[in-house]
């Protein structure tokens, strides 16, 4: 009997009876070719998170104040991802670990949309609902605009150079 999935394990349907009928279950855990990708993401994530932590130490936000540092980190990270995606998809044939390392790892660790949500919650808890709403909208719109603008500008920059 041929397994449904490559590497599937065949097990008896009813182990008490010892039936010859089998059920197919996919193999658990990452495949061996995924370990380099997971390693690249992990190292990149640690670097990105360390850079974000350094920025938060250099430019701390007072309790109840507008969280400018988190806003700038998220908008900057989104701009870099916009430019990066154009470079690795349109202009450069990158090694297979570049995107997981830099895109998912470094920029995923650097940007902090979870802190963004916590900042909003803290502002609301401190009675600053209007400021929280402003921050919510400004961050979302700025992050989207940053990705779009960086992608467009990067494409234009490299198209002009190619002429």
Describe the model.
The structure is a single chain. By secondary structure, the protein is mostly helical. It is 66% helix and 5% strand. The chain contains 5 helices and 2 strands; from the N terminus they run ββααααα. The longest helix has 34 residues, at 129-162.
Concise structural overview:
The protein is mostly helical and 163 residues long.
Order of helices and strands: EEHHHHH
- The chain-level mean pLDDT equals 86
Helix content: 55-70%
- If strands are numbered along the chain, what order do they take across the biggest sheet? 1-2
Biggest sheet character:
2 strands, antiparallel
Number of strands: 2
Question: Termini separation (Å)?
Answer: 59 Å
Please report the number of helical segments.
Answer: 5
Uncertain spans: 12-20
As a whole number of angstroms, the C-alpha radius of gyration is: 23 Å
Any idea what the shape is?
A: globular
Which structural class is indicated by helix and strand composition?
A: mainly alpha
Sheet-strand content, in percent, reads under 5%
